[in-house]
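Work Package 4 report. The design task specified in the project plan requires that, given a folded chain encoded as structure tokens, an amino acid be chosen for each position. We show below one input record used in the internal validation round.
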């Protein structure tokens, strides 16, 4: 089993194609790994029978020469993606018993490509959180934990934890303000947020519709390119889905960075940053130069306004999106009510957790009469300036290198009582969501405590090929091969 779990997705694909292993064998190994790592709480539902059935079908397709690009590869699905006839709860009490009669476009693309569904992965409630501690199922645990349980990051903590723990070969995530890249950095895996519009949002439980974007969690950059190519594509069911054709990401992996210009933004060196993060960022710059790139100092002057703008825009959109959960058509409905308004109030109070309620109230306030112009409209104007900063930067550089997170993974519960401190975890990731550009976190080193640290690369909108070229080079130079201590 250990040999099967040690294979990357590209290696497993090759072994499956050459019939050295079977999809059923590979899937069985991952189902056993899920059992062995159950204490990490990264799965909220395991679909073992469905997985074995899908794997058996994959073996038939491989034998018949009709294999898809992900044929037989086991995939974990963040519990924000609707999966037909499989519970989808957004890790919230209000959707505890919801079973969708339809499949999200992204997961349907994965199954059409031959992916095998292992189950649903833990996340922060409605993707609102940076530590996976707001889930109604309890937190996912970082497999790098020793004596003290560590946060896997959020909101896609279960996805990052499962890939790092080798209980999923591939996993889906969503990124609204860093919810793929931050947990990827915390867990020592590769996390990719594509350009807004690359992956369809249809069938993904909405948090903030102008920011949400699906992306892959993988062990390697090559695996990420493979999975994203299968996930992405234009979808007429999503009005924000981009018609732009995806470049050949696999080809981009071998392009290297020789002659490329890599931007280093002065605004990302902030007061109070962990010295280890600063040192790793400098090391990353050295690697880029060694690989033949030219470093260019750039300015992103409105970066300091990104977090405040984000925490107006995202809650405002959440307030609107979550209004549909009222106990009427589906989800939790509270009994013993006196009126329709009473049912709304009590059902939402019982179904939503504290953090979700906090953000709904912030968003409702920002959208209320007399405050819309002062808060939401102003935040959108700041967002436009942030996008212009990036447009200006990408006129002179091919990619931007920054830290992925301000610290390594922290202990579970350490920041839960201080929302503002928790929100600061997204300080390096939020600008890319506001601008709609792609970003990727690549594991690049270990802290003095032996915890993984990531570096982030950003590129212009729909320039995922440049992003993967630089990410593959960074991965090669960093040569991060350490496995999580609690990996299966």
């Amino acid at each position: 089993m250990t040999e099967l779990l040690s294979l990357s997705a590209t290696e497993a694909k090759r072994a499956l194609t050459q019939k050295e292993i079977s999809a059923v064998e590979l899937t069985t190994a991952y189902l056993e790994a899920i059992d062995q790592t159950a204490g990490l709480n990264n799965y909220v539902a395991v679909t073992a029978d469905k997985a074995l059935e899908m794997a058996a079908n994959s073996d038939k397709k491989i034998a018949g020469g009709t294999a898809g690009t992900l044929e037989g590869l086991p995939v974990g699905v963040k519990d924000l993606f609707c999966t037909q006839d499989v519970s989808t709860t957004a890790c919230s009490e209000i959707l505890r018993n919801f079973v969708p009669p339809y499949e999200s476009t992204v997961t349907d693309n994965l199954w059409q490509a031959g992916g095998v569904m292992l189950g649903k992965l833990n996340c922060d409630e409605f993707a609102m959180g940076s530590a996976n501690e707001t889930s109604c199922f309890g937190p996912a645990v970082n497999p790098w934990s020793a004596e003290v349980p560590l946060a896997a990051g959020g909101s896609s903590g279960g996805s990052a934890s499962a890939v790092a723990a080798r209980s999923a070969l591939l996993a889906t995530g969503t990124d609204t303000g860093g919810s793929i890249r931050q947990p990827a950095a915390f867990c020592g895996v590769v996390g990719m947020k594509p350009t807004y519009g690359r992956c369809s949002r249809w069938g993904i439980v909405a948090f903030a519709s102008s920011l949400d974007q699906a992306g892959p969690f993988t062990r390697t950059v090559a695996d990420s390119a493979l999975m994203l190519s299968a996930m992405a594509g234009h979808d007429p069911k999503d009005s924000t889905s981009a018609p732009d054709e995806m470049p050949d990401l696999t080809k981009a992996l071998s392009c290297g960075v020789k002659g490329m210009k890599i931007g280093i933004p002065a605004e990302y060196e902030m007061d109070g940053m962990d010295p280890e993060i600063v040192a790793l960022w400098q090391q990353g710059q050295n690697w880029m130069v060694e690989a033949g790139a030219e470093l260019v100092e750039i300015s992103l002057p409105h970066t300091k306004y990104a977090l405040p703008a984000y925490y107006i825009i995202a809650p405002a959109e959440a307030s609107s999106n979550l209004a549909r959960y009222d106990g009427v058509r589906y989800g939790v409905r509270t009994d013993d009510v006196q009126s329709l308004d009473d049912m709304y109030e009590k059902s939402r109070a019982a179904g939503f957790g504290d953090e979700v309620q906090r953000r709904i109230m912030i968003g409702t306030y920002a959208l209320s009469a007399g405050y819309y112009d002062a808060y939401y409209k102003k935040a959108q104007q700041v967002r436009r300036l942030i996008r212009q900063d990036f447009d200006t930067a990408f006129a002179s550089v091919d990619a931007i290198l920054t830290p992925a997170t301000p610290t390594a993974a922290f202990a579970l519960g350490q920041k839960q009582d201080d929302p503002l401190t928790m929100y600061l975890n997204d300080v390096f990731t939020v600008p890319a969501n506001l601008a709609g550009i792609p970003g990727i976190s690549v594991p690049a080193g270990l802290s003095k405590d032996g915890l993984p640290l990531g570096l982030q690369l950003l590129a212009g909108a729909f320039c995922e090929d440049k992003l993967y070229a630089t990410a593959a080079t960074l991965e090669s130079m960093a040569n991060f091969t350490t496995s999580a201590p609690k990996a299966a």
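The longest strand covers residues 439-446. Validation will be extended to a larger panel in the next phase.
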